[in-house]
């Protein structure tokens, strides 16, 4: 759920793929959007309240214009399994938690995936929150851990409207020193454990 700055309109993302609009001051239901593909899992306000951004179980972000809630004005496929949760960092940038455990920074209009903020290795992201001041992002996943990530660099990022053509298979850019930026590092913990076990077995054999 999300509430506008005037605390008048309540927006809800629903499992039937619709965006619900409620007028809290008048205590009445206003509007239901057209159903989108998949469940709508999260909703935030951006662009000074002029844009409503919804995540979906299909890995697509849907954009709605304020006062144009009936149909999505734009959509942006992230090529992830799902968008389970979102939190705004600036007026244009949101951090997105997904089923693959990766936390992505995404710019809205122009629509760009900026890079990887962090991850819960192989575990779905349950919830995200930004600390007061906007310097830290907190995340929790199915690994029963709460992790904190430095997102101070996101506040000064400027995204050009011109989009360069990217090669397929290019890893996500790491946006913090602890973020995972490439596929090799993604499995670093597993690789280290395997190497440690191998070293242990070698020492046993030598004994």
Describe this structure as you would to a colleague.
This is WD repeat domain 55. The protein has two helices and 15 strands. The protein is mostly beta strands. The strands form four sheets. A four-stranded antiparallel β-sheet has the order 1-2-3-4, with no helix packed on it. A four-stranded antiparallel β-sheet has the order 5-6-7-8, with no helix packed on it. Strand 11 (102-107) and strand 12 (112-119) form a beta hairpin. The chain starts with a strand and ends with a helix.
What distinguishing features does this structure have?
207 residues, mainly beta, four-stranded antiparallel β-sheet, 2 helices, 15 strands, 11% helix, globular
In short:
The chain is mostly beta strands and 207 residues long. It is 11% helix and 39% strand. It has helices at residues 183-186, 188-206; strands at 2-3, 9-13, 19-23, 28-32, 40-46, 51-56, 60-65, 74-77, 85-88, 93-97, 102-107, 112-119, 125-130, 136-141, 146-150.
Which range best describes the helical content: under 10%, 10-25%, 25-40%, 40-55%, 55-70% or over 70%?
A: 10-25%
Mean pLDDT: 86
Question: What is the radius of gyration?
Answer: 20 Å
> What is the tally of beta strands?
15
Strand content: 35-45%
- Give the SSE string: EEEEEEEEEEEEEEEHH
Pfam family, one: WDR55
Family: Belongs to the WD repeat WDR55 family.
Protein name: WD repeat domain 55
Keywords: Repeat, WD repeat
């Amino acid at each position: 759920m999300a509430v506008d700055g005037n605390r008048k309109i309540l927006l809800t993302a629903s499992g039937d793929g619709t965006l619900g609009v409620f007028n809290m001051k008048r205590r009445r239901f206003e509007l239901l959007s057209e159903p989108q593909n998949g469940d709508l899992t999260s909703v935030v306000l951006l662009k000074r309240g002029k844009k409503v951004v919804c995540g979906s179980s299909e890995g697509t972000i849907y954009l709605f214009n304020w006062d144009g809630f009936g149909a999505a004005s734009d959509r942006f496929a992230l090529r992830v399994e799902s968008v389970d949760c979102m939190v705004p960092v600036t007026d244009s940038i949101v951090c997105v938690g997904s089923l693959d455990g990766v936390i992505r920074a995404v710019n809205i209009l122009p629509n760009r995936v900026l890079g990887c903020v962090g991850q819960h290795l192989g575990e779905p992201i349950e919830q995200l929150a930004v600390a007061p001041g906007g310097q830290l992002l907190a995340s929790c996943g199915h690994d029963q851990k709460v992790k904190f990530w430095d997102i101070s660099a996101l506040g000064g990022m400027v995204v050009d409207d011109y989009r360069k053509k990217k090669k397929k298979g290019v890893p996500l850019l790491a946006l913090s020193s602890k973020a995972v930026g490439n596929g090799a590092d993604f499995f670093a913990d597993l690789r280290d454990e395997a190497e440690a076990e191998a070293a242990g077995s070698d020492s046993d054999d030598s004994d």
